[in-house]
Amino acid sequence: MEQLQTLTEAAKPIAAQARLAIKLDTVAARREAHIAYGRVLLPIRKLIAGNIEFAHYLDQHGLAVGTPQYRTDAMRLAEIADVQGISFERCLNSNPGDVLKWLRRQDPNAKPRKANTKVGETKRALQAREIVRPLVESGEHISVQTLSEDTGISRIVLEAAITAERGRLQGIAEAKDAGLPDQELLSVTGNKRVQLVIERVQRYYAAKERSLERAFDHRISIEVQKHYNETVLPMLKKKLEDADKTLDNYIPPFSNDEYRKLLAALHPDVNKTKWAAELFALVTHKAIKLRGREDGKRLSDDFPTSFADLMKRREAVRKANSERSKAAATRKAS
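Now predict its structure.
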């Protein structure tokens, strides 16, 4: 009796840790808490004969965690871990029952078991889940027989509901490792809702991105126009005005009439010699130096007043070039 009391006192903090295992950060930590709980129950189980007496003793001394099946699985898992020394590093589960299933799947000689009864989407099944959910979440002992008598729901449906709720809690805990909800653990309706939320968020951020891009492009356009209006255009106009001042004091070697006659004499249609073609290109390039301003026109007179004026002139040139191209194509076709 003294030995049982000593074991009981030593097991109490371990049992408390097992109750809070679902809040631990990693799967390995939660699995180790379950194994430790099963390990402290083993010597107590050997001293108490009978399943009912054992369950009653655990309830009386605050050592009961989960269901009798959970405690049986925890003890079995602790036995395997201590005796066989199996590593569970590759196992993605922490619940003792799921870990035992994983172990069976590792055995190549193991025969496949029949599928467990799964809770469906019927009204009765959903009602059963609502009933057992708070009991599973609190870790209380669940008497399926008593629940069945109180609610009128069959044992099979209640057991399936309990299994489903344990799986839900286990999935939520394990999803924390990845920082994301595991959609496979949700119902069809839950999956649809999650997908709708994801799509809505994606649409929102896509629209936000397009809006920011438009605002960014508009801001760049404003800054470019400002730079042209305040820096580039005044600088270019100043250079043309300086060139006009230079031309005002410049006496060209030819007048405009003399220059046109010189061009006519050197034109390739009149003079077929090679040197005439070279001189014609040179004289055309040096027009201002040879004849000065054409008809007294100043270089800075017809200069764009703003960036908008520059773009307007550019569009006019583009349209004129387009019309000439269309006219040429029409003449060629005819």
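Confidence is low (pLDDT under 50) at residues 115-119.
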